[in-house]
Amino acid sequence: METALIEKVGQIGLPVKDLDRALRFYKGTLGLTLLFNTDRMAFLEAGELRLMLSLPEKDEFAHSSSVLYFQVKNIKEAYERLSGKEIQFIGEPHMVAKMEQTETWMVFFKDTEGNTHAFMSEEQG
């Protein structure tokens, strides 16, 4: 049997309109660790995943990204802690699934660049 070619997702790229503003949001508001940056890109660490913020090279790449689901331990605490900061929540934390004793909770938000993302947590119900 052949071994898998792809081991894991190593990096996700997000198009941004204003790199400084996006960096303040992802580093300052969300608390991700900045690895390094250039005048057109910034690389941040989100657990074992690297997030690349970049100014699009061409207009055809200047569109909103896929939804990133950031795992948090306590979604209600994350929501309360970040409400009123540079984050626009879309609704409130809510349960989206329950399997046996595990509840999956989510709350969606927009970043400073118009991308929609979510916080998610799995709690024992």
From TrEMBL:
Keywords: Metal-binding. It comes from the Bacteria. The keyword Metal-binding applies. Signal peptide: none annotated. Pfam families: Glyoxalase (PF00903). SUPFAM superfamilies: Glyoxalase/Bleomycin resistance protein/Dihydroxybiphenyl dioxygenase. Residues 8-122 form the VOC domain. This is VOC family protein. It comes from Rossellomorea oryzaecorticis. The lineage of its organism: Bacteria, Bacillati, Bacillota, Bacilli, Bacillales.
